[in-house]
Specification:
0% strand
Length: 210
């Protein structure tokens, strides 16, 4: 707040402190969730098409799709991080705590991918690898519950519950590829892409109002 601030501006500033808003918003998180949900959701649809026999591409083309998805995600995420650095970072404790919760979840996700990936290769059992998605959704559920506890936003609680249910459903269907992929596809669009769009829109609106 400055000497030239108005009561309305002061009120908006105080509200941002309480709710965790700010000109930085959650652009990186929003982009990560939106891009991840759309890209990996599309990849799941691609694999469903393969199982159903709708997609019959050469092995090299199939590999190109699998590789292109994480590469595209990395490029988009890098852009979001660089874009986020152009504006002041939000300072309220709520926002910092929320960002820390999702960053910690991301670190745990990386460890889980390594553990299940190595275990699957060692045991020559692809189903072991598929369990990692169930654990990731469980961790995401926990992160969203932290977000709900801090923000008290109903949709965050809905995402948390949805993540928990998805984790259980995926864990029970790893040997049933069509069902597993169907659940994963819906969850990626609804529990990753949709919340990402909400966060991204909020971050962009916050920047316009700043």
């Amino acid at each position: 707040m400055t000497d030239k601030s108005t009561p309305e501006a002061d009120l908006a500033f105080l509200r941002s402190v309480v709710t965790g808003g700010g000109p930085g918003g959650h652009l990186t998180l929003g982009v990560a969730y939106l891009a991840g949900g759309l890209l990996y959701g599309a990849q799941c649809l691609f694999h469903i098409g393969q199982i159903a026999g709708w997609i019959r591409w050469p092995d090299l083309a199939n590999l190109a799709v699998v590789v292109a998805v994480p590469v595209a995600f990395f490029v988009i995420l890098t852009w979001a991080i660089l874009e986020d650095r152009k504006v002041p970072k939000p300072g309220p404790m709520v926002t910092r705590t929320l960002n820390a919760a999702f960053s910690a979840t991301g670190m745990a996700n990386l460890a889980i991918i390594i553990v299940f990936g190595v275990g699957s290769a060692r045991d020559h059992d692809f189903a072991v690898w598929l369990y990692y998605a169930a654990v990731i959704f469980a961790l995401q559920s926990a992160a969203w519950f932290v977000a709900f506890t801090l923000k008290r936003t109903p949709w965050m609680l809905a995402v948390s519950i949805g993540g928990w249910l998805t984790a259980v459903a995926l864990g029970l269907t790893v040997r049933q590829a069509p069902i597993y992929l169907g659940i994963c596809t819906v969850a990626l669009f609804l529990l990753f892409a949709l919340p990402g769009w909400v966060m991204l829109r909020g971050a962009l609106n916050a920047r316009k109002a700043a």
